[in-house]
Protein backbone atom coordinates (compact mmCIF):
# COMPACT_ATOMS: atom_id res chain seq x y z
CA UNK A 1 0.00 0.00 0.00
CA UNK A 2 1.21 3.48 -0.77
CA UNK A 3 0.91 6.55 1.43
CA UNK A 4 -1.92 7.78 -0.78
CA UNK A 5 -3.66 4.43 -0.45
CA UNK A 6 -3.36 4.67 3.32
CA UNK A 7 -4.88 8.16 3.29
CA UNK A 8 -7.77 6.92 1.11
CA UNK A 9 -8.33 4.03 3.54
CA UNK A 10 -8.38 6.48 6.45
CA UNK A 11 -10.93 8.62 4.61
CA UNK A 12 -13.11 5.54 4.14
CA UNK A 13 -12.84 4.63 7.83
CA UNK A 14 -13.66 8.21 8.80
CA UNK A 15 -16.52 8.42 6.31
CA UNK A 16 -15.25 11.58 4.64
CA UNK A 17 -14.89 12.52 0.98
CA UNK A 18 -11.91 11.31 -1.01
CA UNK A 19 -9.04 13.78 -1.04
CA UNK A 20 -10.56 15.66 1.91
CA UNK A 21 -7.99 14.48 4.46
CA UNK A 22 -4.97 16.77 4.86
CA UNK A 23 -1.63 16.13 6.54
CA UNK A 24 -2.41 18.76 9.18
CA UNK A 25 -5.79 17.25 10.12
CA UNK A 26 -6.16 16.07 13.71
CA UNK A 27 -8.77 14.43 15.87
CA UNK A 28 -9.96 17.97 16.62
CA UNK A 29 -10.44 18.98 12.96
CA UNK A 30 -12.13 15.75 11.82
CA UNK A 31 -15.25 15.20 13.96
CA UNK A 32 -15.61 11.61 12.73
CA UNK A 33 -12.14 10.73 14.10
CA UNK A 34 -13.35 9.03 17.27
CA UNK A 35 -11.80 6.41 19.51
CA UNK A 36 -13.64 3.76 17.46
CA UNK A 37 -12.02 5.17 14.30
CA UNK A 38 -8.64 4.93 16.08
CA UNK A 39 -9.24 1.22 16.68
CA UNK A 40 -10.16 0.75 13.01
CA UNK A 41 -7.11 2.70 11.81
CA UNK A 42 -4.74 0.75 14.05
CA UNK A 43 -6.36 -2.51 12.94
CA UNK A 44 -5.73 -1.45 9.33
CA UNK A 45 -2.08 -0.72 10.18
CA UNK A 46 -1.67 -4.13 11.81
CA UNK A 47 -3.38 -6.10 9.04
CA UNK A 48 -2.07 -4.17 6.03
CA UNK A 49 1.50 -3.52 7.16
CA UNK A 50 2.04 -6.06 9.94
CA UNK A 51 3.09 -3.22 12.26
CA UNK A 52 2.00 -3.25 15.88
CA UNK A 53 0.83 0.22 16.92
CA UNK A 54 3.49 1.62 19.25
CA UNK A 55 3.74 4.87 21.17
CA UNK A 56 4.99 6.76 18.06
CA UNK A 57 1.86 5.79 16.13
CA UNK A 58 -0.57 6.12 19.01
CA UNK A 59 0.63 9.59 20.04
CA UNK A 60 0.80 11.02 16.50
CA UNK A 61 -1.13 14.29 16.57
CA UNK A 62 -1.78 14.75 12.85
CA UNK A 63 -2.49 12.63 9.81
CA UNK A 64 0.92 13.66 8.47
CA UNK A 65 2.73 12.55 11.64
CA UNK A 66 0.96 9.21 11.54
CA UNK A 67 1.85 8.68 7.87
CA UNK A 68 5.45 9.83 8.45
CA UNK A 69 5.84 7.39 11.34
CA UNK A 70 4.53 4.59 9.13
CA UNK A 71 6.96 5.62 6.37
CA UNK A 72 9.83 5.58 8.84
CA UNK A 73 8.83 2.01 9.77
CA UNK A 74 9.00 0.98 6.10
CA UNK A 75 5.25 0.58 5.68
CA UNK A 76 4.69 2.16 2.27
CA UNK A 77 5.50 0.57 -1.06
CA UNK A 78 6.19 3.91 -2.77
Which terms summarize this structure?
78 residues; 53% helix; mainly alpha; Non-ribosomal Peptide Synthetase Peptidyl Carrier Protein, Chain A
Describe the structure.
The chain has 78 residues and is mostly helical. The protein has one domain: ACP-like (Non-ribosomal Peptide Synthetase Peptidyl Carrier Protein, Chain A). Helices cover 53% and strands 0% of the residues. The protein contains four helices and no strands. The protein has helices at residues 3-14, 35-49, 55-58, 63-72. Helix 1 (3-14) packs antiparallel against helix 2 (35-49). The protein is globular. The termini are close together. The model has no long low-confidence stretch (mean pLDDT 96).
CATH topology: Non-ribosomal Peptide Synthetase Peptidyl Carrier Protein, Chain A
CATH class: Mainly Alpha
Radius of gyration: 11 Å
- Percent range for β-strand residues: under 5%
CATH architecture label name: Orthogonal Bundle
> How many structural units, i.e. domains?
1
Unreliable runs, pLDDT <50, ≥5 residues? none
Task: List the topology elements.
Layout: H1 3-14, H2 35-49, H3 55-58, H4 63-72
Helix pairs in contact: 1-2
Task: Sum this structure up briefly.
The chain has helices at residues 3-14, 35-49, 55-58, 63-72. The protein is an all-alpha fold and 78 residues long. The mean pLDDT is 96.
Amino acid sequence: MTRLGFLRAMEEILGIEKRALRDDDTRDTVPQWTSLADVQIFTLIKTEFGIEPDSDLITAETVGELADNLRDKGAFSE
